[in-house]
Amino acid sequence: MDLKKIGGRVARERARAGLSQRELAVRTELSQPTLARIETGERPALTFAELDRVAAALSVPLTLLTKGNPVRQRMQVAARASEGAEEELRRAEGLVGEILALDDRLDRFVPDGHRTDRQRAARLKRAPAQVVDAEREGRALAEEVRERLRLGLGPVPDLAGLVESAIGLDTAALTLPQGVSGFTARDPEREVTISVVNASDVPERQRFSLAHELGHVLLSDGVAAHRLDGRRTPDERRCDAFARHLLAPAEGVRRWMECLSAAEPGRRECAMAARHYGVSLPVLLIQCRELGLLTDTQARKTQGPTGRALAWTYGWGPQYVMECEAAARVRPPRRIMERAVAAYRAGRIGVRAIAALSGAEPRTTERELEEAGIRPPEVALSGRVDVRALLGRRGRPAQRAAKPPEDEQERR
Q: Which of 18, 138, 152, 195 supports an S-S bond with 238, CB 3.0-4.6 Å?
């Protein structure tokens, strides 16, 4: 056995369970120094019996510690990343892999009552097909989704909530590395798909990235890396069209401009329409060109200012600042967070797992859960613990409670 790799897996699974070394040491009946040496790979020997105790305490299969994480190994990935961002992409994959691994682990504690939700996405999916007309095909799917969800021609105020509740797909906003704007990962064995956006991006970019990733899922165009390198594939252009028409439907934009009495809309009218639909000015200008409201020359003259500059110029600067601050917060998948909190309430995972999922400090998370009336069962795992008494309550002979010589030496 490669003890260093096994030790690293023990440390990672302990972190996923939200346990400290001390807490896991009590559960495994090992001393904390022994557990520390196991995790660093410095212990010269490790028996299967000891490793089995560790696996049982973590509620994971023994093979997970000896052979690695099967979820991470089978995970399929599709990411929107800038060219040359390979290292950032690998780190982003690791973040999403941790979420999928936690969700897989929660199956042992909390039944997944949302499996039927994911069947709704299957009803909206298209069979894989080669792109013939990216704009037409993307628009057609967006209009179908809008019709099925009865969205009319109005804006979609909470796209993430819509995708999770009405379509049945998991979404998240995580602090991803620079250069990675959108990310979709799938566990084919459990049929779980998570679409992630970068919490560092502005709100309108996050919305477009999420809509774009939703397009890839619904169009079944494969889980492959789609790079933003200036040479966009037909699949990418089709998903761009889907995202644009889903967020800012062409006919809705036309009617909005009519309400503004803008036969030839200027920057102010375009900025107000972009604000109404929650998209960037460039996205709105593309729609105006498609509708014939602007020529290419007029659109080029209109574009330029950032969303922040437009907001302050036309009167919604303070609101935009608050929206950016809210969008910058980590937002984990609602379904997985619900399951994790249920496992925490049952005492199956620690608060650190919830904190890692939400991107918050453990003490802050514990306080917020406490204020919400959510707390784990009363278990004496902190402070000084009488291991002999604990073992005695389990009905084990007293002599078996004695520590091996190695553990006693490590204690000294």
A: 138
